[in-house]
Amino acid sequence: MGKGIIIDKNGGVIWLYGISGAGKTTISKLLKEQLTEAGNLSIILDGDELRSGINNDLSFTQADRSENIRRVAEMAKLLAKNNILVICALITPLQEHRALARKIINENFYEIFINCPLEVCESRDVKGLYKLSRAKKIENFTGIDSGFEYANHADLVLLTADSTPQASTQILYDFLLTQL
Question: For 157-177, how does the pLDDT look when each residue is reduced to its tens digit (9 = 90+)?
Fold first, then answer.
């Protein structure tokens, strides 16, 4: 997969966003593997993992979603300043959330929309979250009873419904080669 070259020794933030089940976590893991093979120092900040730890005090209200994004963006900025490529995988449902992340991080920020139709994501339902949301056991679930604004300013859009995770990752990696 990788071309075996170091992309950027100065760090940067690759912000993957999309609804649950679109492929953010899978692509982030594959991208990290590819970056590591090429000799790049990288880390993944995954929304689910962060919400079970540092952000476990936050709910899914709009105010708490904004605070979640703010905290992750601040962490990503610090890591990128230390020459690490930071792969953020978060739903980031609203344009204002993505604008906040971009404003905080500023330099070397790449907004990547992982675009997959709700029906496909719901059919994947790896974590059973859509089923719980439809049964009204989860409130404010993005795509069901909480909105998601599609990309206005994405640097790259990956269509994952009809593409393998490996193919999507390669498109992303090739894009990064031209940017970083």
Answer: 999 999 999 999 999 999 998
Beta-strand runs (E) in 47-170 = 85-89, 109-115, 156-159
User: Cα–Cα distances in Å, from 169 out to 43, 88, 143?
Assistant: 16, 14, 24
Residue 3 counted as domain residue: no
Question: Rounded CA gap, 137 and 131, in Å?
Answer: 9
Residue 13 CA to residue 69 CA, distance in Å, equals: 13
Structure tokens given for 115: 């675009």
Is 72 within a domain? yes
Q: With beta carbons less than 8 A apart as the criterion, state whether 13 and 77 touch.
A: yes
Q: What is the CATH number of the domain that holds 55?
A: 3.40.50.300
Dihedral, CA atoms, 160, 161, 166, 170, nearest 10 degrees? -40
| Domain tally, the chain | 1
**Is the per-residue pLDDT at 110 higher than 90?**
yes
d(CA 160, CA 144): 19
- 70 occurs within a structural domain: yes
In a domain, 4, yes or no: no
The range of the structural domain enclosing residue 57 comes to: 12-95+106-179
Q: Which helix or strand (DSSP H or E) is residue 44 part of?
A: strand 42-46
Q: Is 148 exposed, middle or buried (0-12, 13-18, 19+ CB in 10 A)?
A: middle
